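the two lines:
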Amino acid sequence: MERGSQNRTAAKEGETTSRIPSQSRKHGKAGAQASEVSGKALGRMVEAFMRLPGIGRKSAERLAFAVLGMPWDEAAGIAQAIISLKNNSRYCPICNNITEEEICGICRDEKRDASLICVVEEPSNILILEKTGIFRGRYHAIMGAIAPLDGIGPEDLKIDGLMERLNAGGIKEVIIATNPTVKGETTALYLSKLIKPLGISVSRIAYGLPVGGDIEYADENTVQRALEGRREM
Amino acid sequence: MERGSQNRTAAKEGETTSRIPSQSRKHGKAGAQASEVSGKALGRMVEAFMRLPGIGRKSAERLAFAVLGMPWDEAAGIAQAIISLKNNSRYCPICNNITEEEICGICRDEKRDASLICVVEEPSNILILEKTGIFRGRYHAIMGAIAPLDGIGPEDLKIDGLMERLNAGGIKEVIIATNPTVKGETTALYLSKLIKPLGISVSRIAYGLPVGGDIEYADENTVQRALEGRREM
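prediction for all of em together
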């Protein structure tokens, strides 16, 4: 009986649905927005969250409702963290890492190997590399990658600062940890040609299968690189 | 030659790696945190974002760096939206939808069918249902679901307000759109038993295969419900 009533409802909804132009149903463009249904403040919160990378409308709505359900202090804490981050953080003048000090903690750390520099595209990459805990040298973020199609050339990157550090002497090896993409690879090649004449050893982080990944899902380029980079066991 | 040097680096890194206890590498607990590498303000931002649902450490770090890279005004806009949302939004006293007005836009809309109420668990569900554009009745958010294991009984939900609306008369049908979960189903059954004696028609939204889904990936319960709920073509 319960089920019978479900069927009836479904049929009823089906009929209603068929009267709506399929275009608007498919793309949902005609669908209601957060500000119409739940007020302008919620709508503005959704729009604000959507400015963050990887946050689409659906995630932004979920986050907005979460903020709404939080204690006032906790929500204000997020707002305060944003303002504090923007007011207090700056780029390290040596390596472009993010810091609140004059010079970042890694550049100040005397225990780290000053003869080894790892070049990354973005300051955020430094955090990822630090998490491995195996690299004990220093860093240099060049703030992007060479991308001729986007009009980004070497002169738009912080390569000058890197070359100054290398020319100042004392550097034995540079590890290039730009992204495993066409842009990152182009940048790696460019840097390699620039640095090698200084008599400094230049290496590139390895390509291969991601740990924990399934070879079946790897693309053929990655598998090719994994084969080429094979090591004796 | 390029490749040869890559191989050497990989081998070198491999050696370094083998000296690190595998425990710390596997779980990454010994890995550096954002506040150590990129300053306390960034660390606090990461912690703040992690309080949001579905945002783990990695996503929070990505978001924190995105905020850092934003123009000041845009970042401040997010902070302002949080404060404004918390200060200006409240629950509609009739249906518990989120609103900035005395009574929410849906309850105020005279063009909507006042004889039809759709019951949902959370105010956020109202937005999802509104996006379909096919429901023209009104809503009632009961602010949760019955969950005896979590100590949440009917008395902890906003069911009284719903019953008041139903007892006031003029309601012909109640559609129960609680979640398709054990809690949601328990709540639906409870509400159905409460409402039917009032002579009001009660229906439950349909179970079945999600649109665009692949039957191969559906769980057997869903497929069973989809079979039971089949409709003549």
